[in-house]
Amino acid sequence: MSRPSPFRLNQALDLTPWRERMAARGRAQIPDVLEPDAAKRILTRLEMAPRWNLAADCAGRHVDLDAKGMEARPAKDRAQFMALVHEQARDGFGYLFNNIPIYDIYHNRKTQSHPLNEVYELLNSAPMLELARHVTGCDDIGFADAQATRYLPGHFLTEHDDNVAGKNRRAAYVLSLTAKWRPDWGGLTLFLDEHGCVEEAFAPKFNTLSIFLVPQRHAVSVVAPFAGGARYSITGWFRAGEDPLLRRA
Predict the structure, then answer these.
(1) H or E element: which one contains 168?
(2) How much is the pTM?
(3) Domains of the chain, residue spans
(4) What top-level class would CATH report for the domain 16-248?
(5) Which cofactors, by name (predicted)?
(6) pLDDT for position 109
(7) Distance (Å, rounded) from C-alpha 18 to C-alpha 128?
(8) Residue 188 and residue 97: Cα distance in Å, rounded?
């Protein structure tokens, strides 16, 4: 007999206004999406996670480094690394943030007891996938992939549209779990028009699901050096069809 999940959607959600907003703007930010205790439990698991990767585009190549290990490296090595990351971001697509690859961990038979596996199961539960289909109007959504992200001062994600051939991404999502955040700390999800101007910005808000159709130009603004905490979230895409990793199992 399977044990009940500790994470549940807010049973009082009225999705009508968010479906209407999605139809009009291609994006919506749904507050109080989980039961309050569920959101707090997920945040606690993120705060207690023993290992975070440092994900970056370094000279046009994706790298995943041990975040604590990078902090322990000599200042000269860190400065050289940052110079490459910033050069890439200045001239093209770039990013720098901490992550935990929840999707990969869940499908790894050696990590079946990982504390974030239940987060993956929440995102792929029937109620959550039905929410995604209902709000977006994309009836072929079949699963969600996921990663945990932690943005610290200096972290960022430059302009992109999430459209990758063969991934069948219907909508991107950000489940924000930041307990306290000010917009002037940065870390805003910026939506850009065809002229490169900011059309709208979503600030991190605790227990809020930002969801937007793919493709859509957006970025995450750099987190300020004076930010008073970390920007925690679970992010990924609602994708059409069957999870390809389940087919391989």
Answers:
(1) none
(2) 0.95
(3) 16-248
(4) mainly beta
(5) L-ascorbate
(6) 77
(7) 14
(8) 14
